[in-house]
Structures are given as structure tokens and as C-alpha cells.
Amino acid sequence: MKIREATEEDFDNVWPIFHEVVSVGDTYAYPSDTSKEDALKVWIQAPQKTFVIEENNKILGTYYIKTNQNGPGEHVCNCGYMVSSAARGKGLATTMCEHSQRIAIELGYKAMQFNFVASTNEGAVRLWNKLGFETVGKLPKAFNHPKLGLVDALVMYKWLE
């Protein structure tokens, strides 16, 4: 497997992953009907960098890295990760998160923060904890899960230095 920086030309192959994840509505705070055009903006154009993980020239997952807050908070980055359902369980999220931490340090970030992790996304919470992230805040009933209703959202943080 190989991780490389994504280009806008990659988006046609990223879009099915983005659409698959977001349309379910149980992990990301994007509208479940996010358009391809809006997805391109938030996943490829707005972040500082976006990466894809591929095998045999097929994109299986993707992540972005961006500054979490400008000004006095610009030393903290934020990332988002998505893996195709067909490629889950192969350690891709682990590989991408470890890669993103190295990239974050190269870009001068000192910490990484996940702003809005659905508490019901148990796989992600377990993985982020395993990779050294701490839950530093809980937003009660902030995430409207399509099946479970209002559930907590977590703020998770890791100092990288």
C-alpha cells in the first residue's frame, strides 16, 4: 500500500468513498446529501493537504490535514479520515493516522485535534485512544445519529512533540 498526496484529478476516485461514508450519516457532521462539488471543496480544496492510500492504483482511503484554528491556535491541526467499506479491517485508518502525525510534524504542527467524533463511532474512538489521543471534551447530545438520535460528540487531542 502506498500513501501519496491527492490532486483534484483524484477526486473522481475519492468521491465514491466520501459519498459512501457521508450518506450513511453516522460518523461525519456533513449533510448526508453533500454534493460532489461541495465535497471537493471540503475534502480537497480547503485543507492544507489531502492524501490517498492506494493499492494496485486503486484508492482505498483518504485523509486531509488542515489548521484547526488560525492565529494563536495555528500550531494545532485537524484531520479527517475515510476508508472504503470494501477495504475496512485492513489497518488503513491506523496507517493513515500514523502518516498524518508525521506529516503534521513536518508541517510544523505541535498537536492534532479531532473536533467532533461521534461517541457511537466506537471503532474510531478505540483506534484514536490506541494511537495516543485523549478525550478532552464531551459535547452532550451534539451529534444527531440517524438511528440512535442525539448522542455525544467527543473532542480528542494529542500533543505531537
Structure description:
Strand 4, helix 3 (92-106) and strand 5 (111-118) form a beta-alpha-beta unit. With 161 residues, the chain is α+β, with helices and mostly antiparallel strands. It contains 4 helices and 7 strands. It has a 7-stranded mixed β-sheet. The protein is 30% helix and 37% strand. The chain has one domain (2-159): 3-Layer(aba) Sandwich (Aminopeptidase), CATH 3.40.630. The relative contact order is 0.15. Helix 1 (11-24) packs across helix 2 (36-45).
List the helices and strands and how they pair.
Blueprint: E1 2-5, H1 11-24, H2 36-45, E2 49-55, E3 58-67, E4 76-83, H3 92-106, E5 111-118, H4 122-130, E6 134-145, E7 149-159
Helix pairs in contact: 1-2
Biggest sheet architecture: 7 strands, mixed
- In DSSP terms, counting alpha (H) and pi (I) runs of 4 or more, how many helices? 4
Q: What is the number of independent domains?
A: 1
Structural class: alpha+beta
- Which residue ranges are poorly predicted, with pLDDT under 50 across at least 5 consecutive positions? none
The string of secondary-structure elements, in order, is: EHHEEEHEHEE
- What is the class in the CATH system? Alpha Beta
Assign the CATH topology: Aminopeptidase
CATH architectural type: 3-Layer(aba) Sandwich
Number of strands: 7
Overall radius of gyration: 15 Å
Global shape: globular
Strand content: 35-45%
